[in-house]
Structures are given as structure tokens and as C-alpha cells.
Amino acid sequence: MTETRLRFPPSPTGYLHIGGARTALYNWLYARKTGGKLILRIEDTDTERSTQGSIQGILDGLEWLGIDWDEGPYFQTDFSHEHIAAAQRLLNEGNAYKCFCTQEELKAKREAAMAAKQDQVGYDRTCRHLTPEQVAEKESAGLSYVVRFKVPDSDGILAYEDKVLGRIERRYSETEDFVIVRSNGKPLYLLCNVVDDIRDRITHIVRGQDHMTNTARQVLLYEALGAPLPVFAHMPLTLDLKKAKISKRSHGEIVAVHFYREHGFIPWAFCNFLVLLGWSPGDDREIFSREELIEAFTLERINRSNSIFNYRKDDPKFFTDPKAISINEQYLRAMDLDELAPLVQEVLEREGLWNDAYLDGRREWFLHTIDMIRDRFHTLNDFASLGRAYFSDEFTVEEKPLKKNVLKHPDLKEWLPTLAERYMALPEFTLESAEQAARELAEELDIKPGIIINAMRTVVTGQLAGPSMFDILMTIGRNKVVSRLRAVANLFPEEN
Ligand code: GLU
């Protein structure tokens, strides 16, 4: 069997969009599944819109997602001579022709065709019938021209097999003689893309259904260039709840891969979310390890119908598709601690909360702590925000527990420091001794133990909820607990 060769050919005109990331992921999965190759090709022929920053952003995004490639990055502009040679070959072999019609002439033709209600599609082929002498004459008169592809004349059909959509057919007469070289001599993307795919020996093209009109024309180019057709698989589009294409203009940063990185998503969890936007395994599984997904992935199971990116701009509860968040939470809870640790490290470093001792002397403490607190977290960033009190003495106490558990009982200004002194005096600070001291104090004061315990949670962690209180105390350690309990008065408004 010939080796499968897939490609991801982004145009570097913006950041890596989740649609682009999904395309890259599907191609990568299929290359890995079949033991083939993934080629990264930067389609930078649009020199006005392509930027270095965008290229870097795409490379960083792929690296973050864990999508690696086997060849490239190749740059389309490095192969301009091949694109020009291909256009020349099409001209030489009579599969293309020079068209001298001006913009004004084309416009007038279009209007006339519309008025006459002709069913001719697009360009009326005037220049297709020029004799070589007429062409030479126009050229020597210095008239500018574009090069058009000569769509076969017969009333046949062009056809290809699409792994997702089945056999696709289109009558030749439905395709106009399309332009392959602009009047400035630059070949169009449509041609460059095919020339590159032929040179790169691409066997499978997996891309969005929005490229299907290109595919119809490109199939003709493959035939004219005498190259075998690759296998096509057109993926559904990703739409919003109102069935509009998701875009930066309407949806903002949530369509960019870097948004998920900045918001503390686990890269593979995000890939797991992306793959389900347009593919399903055929059963009810949703969570896949890398190996499981490579094993399960097939082009045939790519959905035909469009997928929905479920994002409600005005719902503050969800800052992106809740499914992306829920998958991330599931990974966060189940992930191997050794795999989770470096991801948490990255976030803590970014927030200035990291301590190198977490790698050796305090490694065990660190792993235990992240394991204990991860249960309620949604993203990696929560380790630095909701979990801040575990890594720093500077944390904010949330307003809700502050009001509910602390300010309501001004006597806590005495009670908690009393408890702090008892904790200092304990021969050993253990789960049992800490709990017993708290309960004894409540009993002496004739109050519910919950009052002490909830206040303690608020003062020690800043949070309303979390792991078991006495586990927290052991993790944070006697000295820090004692100093936070002693400082409770600082949380009350100053008295005059
Ligand atoms: N550069 C094109 C894009 O970013 C690639 C299209 C293709 O996959 O052929 O949309």
C-alpha cells in the first residue's frame, strides 16, 4: 500500500482559528492512524495579508495542541516557479488560454447575459476562440491578460468520491472557464494549491465543505496536469446557535486557539472537544486518550451535517461552549498527577506563584495539594485563582463567604485567635487534634461547630467551598493556619 500523505495548509492571515485547528487535528489523526505523514504547508501566496506573526501563532498553536508534523513547514511562495510552469504547461497543452477581456467588457457581458436571461455560467468564452495570430497581435499591442482554464466542452460530468459525502458529480457546463493566472502574472491560489499537493504527493485532502466549489475546479486541474486524484473528505462547517459561521467579528476571541490556552484548557482535552465538533465514534463514547482516538478515528465517520458551537454570548455562566468546559473538567479530575503537574506549574509560574521546591523537596506536598483541590476546578487557571491560598499568603477572600461566614459573627475576632493559640499549643497538629480543638472551642462557647469551621475555611482559603476543612489545615500547615486565624480582625471593616 502506498504511504498516506496528508497536509495542513493554513493561510497565515490571522490567528489559528478553532476551525483550522479542527482541520489540522483530523488530518493529523488520519496520518497517525494510517502510519502516514502530515505535511505542514504555509499558503502564503497572498503576500499582502500574510504575516510573520500569524505564521508564528499557527506554529505555536499546533505545538500547544500536540499536533506534530513530519515534513515542513514548506512555504508556498518558495514554489512560485512551479506554479508558473504549471500554468505555462496548461497553456502549451491547450488546456488553458489567454483572456484579454477587460473588467469593463466582462461587466457589460454579465449585464447583457442577465438581461437576456441566458443560462450560460460565468464568462462567455470569447477569448477561447481567438486564433494564435489574434493572440500574438494582442500581446504585441501590450494588452494585459489573465489565463483561464479551458473547462471541457462536452456535456459530460466531473466526478469524485468524497469519503464523507459519497460520490459528488457536477456537469462541466456548471463550471465557468475560471482564472488560474491574474493579469499581474501571479497564479491563483486554486492552481498553486493543486500544484503543491501534486508535488507533495498528497493522498488525502481533508478540508471544510466551504472548499467544495474549489474542489470541483481543482479536479479538472488534476486531470489536465495528468495527476491522480487524491481522496477527498469534506468536513461539515461549524456554526453558532443561530446557524451563522463562527468568526472573530461576531464571536470575538473565543474562536481563537490561543484563547483556550490563556484560559487554562488542557491541550488534549481541547483536542478531544474539537474532534467531536464534526465527528463521532458511532457509539456514546466522548472521552478518548490520544491512542484511543487515533484508533477510533475514520474519515467515514465525519458528520455530514454542520456542527454547532454552542456558545451564548450573553450567558455569563459559560464563557465558551459548555461542552469544552465539561470535557476539560473531566480531564482535570482524572488526569495522572505527573501529567497534570507540569501544566499547573506553567500556570503558577505565569502568576508568580511557583516555587522550585515543588519539583523536589516539596514535590509530594505539591502533588497532594493539586490532587486535593482539583475536584471543583474547571480550568488550570483555577489553581492560581480559586486555589491561590495554597500557594501564597496573598489571596482575596471572596465576598460571599466573607459576609456569610465571617462578618455575621463579630465575636470571631476573638474566637479564631483563641483557636489559633490552642493550635499553637497542641503537641501535634493532626487531623484529629485540629478537629477536636475546634469542636471543643465551639462547645465551650455554646455555638455550633459549623460557625467555627466555616469561618476557618473562609479565613484560611478565601473560598466558600472546597475539600474537607481539616485536610485543608494539614495541607496549608500549622504556621500559616495560625497566622491567618490570628489576622481575622483585618477582614472586618475598621471601627472608629
Ligand atoms: N489555505 C487554505 C485555507 O486556509 C487551505 C485550503 C485547503 O485545504 O486546500 O483555507
Please sum up the structure shown.
The chain is mainly alpha-helical and 496 residues long. The chain has helices at 18-33, 52-65, 80-92, 103-115, 132-140, 189-199, 212-224, 248-251, 257-262, 267-275, 290-296, 322-334, 337-350, 363-373, 399-407, 412-425, 431-445, 449-461, 469-476, 478-486; strands at 5-8, 37-42, 71-75, 96-99, 146-149, 157-162, 166-171, 179-181, 204-208, 231-235, 238-239, 307-308.
Q: Can you offer a commentary on this structure?
A:
The model has no long low-confidence stretch (mean pLDDT 95). The chain has 496 residues and is mostly helical. The chain has 20 helices and twelve strands. A three-stranded parallel beta sheet has the order 1-2-3. It has a three-stranded antiparallel beta sheet with strand order 4-5-8. It has a two-stranded antiparallel ribbon with strand order 6-7. Strand 2, helix 2 and strand 3 form a beta-alpha-beta unit. The protein starts with a strand and ends in a 10-residue tail after the last helix. Helix content is 45%, strand content 10%. Helix 10 crosses helix 12, helix 17 crosses helix 18 and helix 17 crosses helix 19. The chain binds glutamic acid. Glutamic acid binds next to loops. GO terms for molecular function: ATP binding; glutamate-tRNA ligase activity; tRNA binding; zinc ion binding. Its main location: cytoplasm. Monomer. It catalyses: tRNA(Glu) + L-glutamate + ATP = L-glutamyl-tRNA(Glu) + AMP + diphosphate.
Distinctive features:
single chain; 496 residues; mainly alpha; 3-stranded parallel sheet; 20 helices; 12 strands; elongated; binds glutamic acid
